[in-house]
Specification:
The relative contact order is 0.09. With 687 residues, this protein is of the alpha/beta class. 29% of the residues lie in helices and 21% in strands. Bound molecules: alpha-D-galactopyranose (GLA). The site of alpha-D-galactopyranose has 9 residues, from loops.
Amino acid sequence: MRRRTTPDSFDATAVRPWNAQLDGLGYGGDYNPEQWPAEVRDEDVRLMREAGVNILSVAIFSWATLEPREGELDWTWLDETMDSLHAASIQVALATATASPPPWLTRKHPEILPRLADGTVLHQGGRQAYAVTHPVHRDYALRMAARMAERYGDHPALALWHVDNEIGCHVPRDYSDSAAAAFRDWLRERYTTVDRLNEAWGTTFWSQRYADFDDVLPPLTVPAIVNPTQQLDFDRFSSDALLDYYRDLRDTLREITPHVPTTTNLMTTTATKGMDYFSWSDDLDVVANDHYTIAADDERHVELALSADLARGVAHGAPWILMEHSTSAVNWQPRNRTKAPGEMLRNSLQHVARGADSVMFFQWRQSRAGAEKYHSAMVPHAGTDTDVWRSTVDLGSALQRLGEVRGSRVVARAALIVDYPAWWAAELDSHPTQELRYMDEVRSWYTALWDQGVTVDTVTPHTDLAGYDLVVAPTLYLVDDEGAANIARAAERGATVAVTFFSGIVDSHDHVRLGGYPGAFRDLLGVRTEEFYPLQAAETVHVTGKAVGGDATADLWTEKTHVLDGTEVVASYDDGALAGHPAVTRRNVGSGAAWYMGTRLERSGLDALVGRLVEESGVAPDGIGPAGVEIVRRRSNDGATTWLFALNHTDADTTLHGVSGIELLGGDAVVGDLAVPAGAVRVVREA
Ligand code: GLA
């Protein structure tokens, strides 16, 4: 697919940091001045200064405004915007303006429109109506990006390139003819011969054997169950195709502005299944993430923390940019929720606590027209005599006071393995249960660790695990031999490793590892499962054992497991078809241990088990507060300074003990006791 590559002369060390021109942390949001008359734009700059805004994303959806007719360019408003923002000392994350092709383009070239699996064409009139693989679209998009780089590459307001927008958000999978052709090219490269593809896809089954790569289709709508490996490869291909689109745009920018960093905004928890972001890491000069709290989620602060930790994981621990979140309600959930007083500040600083060096919103000024007019913004419809505006100003001054944390890192001794191919494969159809949701498993383990105050890094099965004392692999259904060996090495070396049900079942082609489940981890865990016993809706079983808190309830999944010599049964089924059989096991491995959980424990049982794992591994929580009070630390790169973030997500005031230093938001000295009122945040530079 790729036609451009980074030039040989490209020197990665010459790329300047995205925040080279900023003091402290970044603060701002998406800015769409083309939607407003001149007098509003003048007011914008005045208000931005009042709020302490220092960085804005500009021109994300501006293609049709910048190029109203093919080849007819109108830069007036953008020239003025860049100049006036520069005059106000505001930096710009300038977009490639490609996030939605202009209507004249899709009218002239309807072949660039993407398609669903059933052939439905996704038309123009919303946004993101383009096939990332289509060569005609690609040419137009690259030309637009090149024009932006040529015009603004030397502009002093330019901080970084914001490539396209949330690539893959609305069209993570495209089934158009151009996607089909690109998929076949991708398969040719992966398998070289069609026989190898036949082998990998197991096509002797159901008469699917291919004579030629040209016979292969994307997983279109079919009478019965598409070949699972075909689906899995299409997932891999689609993530690569989206990344390829990013790379092509980035390399176009690099040719013209080799010193300017490039990123695109990821969505690590909202709408993310399409993209294997861990495989995107190395192509981003800085990781940027968008996050929106989910109204229906009672523990949305935990979901937020997971999103932030995923962003930090993709960034290999480096500070990252929160590119978008919301000041208050969004407009795209079934029932949108207005944020409570203090919630926006708490959300923002929670991202900072977990490694963000910039806090940005969608968007600066709430639109009057269009699909997002009921989405909150920094300047709301009602103007500046509003709670939202006052919180915007308050957040700006809070971020100024926290400037010294910039560049510091979150340090974790616990690792949570998250793997996109395992996710894709675990949720393929015709499995023992259709009710298993990979991210639910990740989330429940993440929550249990969050409840214990343990900060985790999100990692892949291939990450070097040397720095971790606790490694958790929830439902790692698909794993290759190297990944499985890497996880086993962590236990040998002394870590406590926990693996949960439906892990290590298949290889990277989705072929079952024979000889008893979980094939990839049988030796490590010292168990052999002969048959799965998925539970029916509302069916639960009891599990007993000290490690699960005595008597625990489990649902969704059970399995008939035998332990090998040297493996200890720490909890067993008390009832149901498997009464008396092992549910949770533990084995000494090297200087560490390997635990297996063959069922899904409900919250209290999982909390008890995770408590045991935390204790055994020696991973210390970042601090102990009451339930719902989050404590996280950032540490300076020389290790000399730590900043403790305490976020009270509850509606009760609390006091943390054993904290000393300077509280940066209020400027007060803290000696021993740190009061954290209901809903509040405190940040202490520790003594
Ligand atoms: C995404 C997009 C923005 C905006 C927000 C609304 O994150 O990138 O353009 O639509 O959603 O929440």
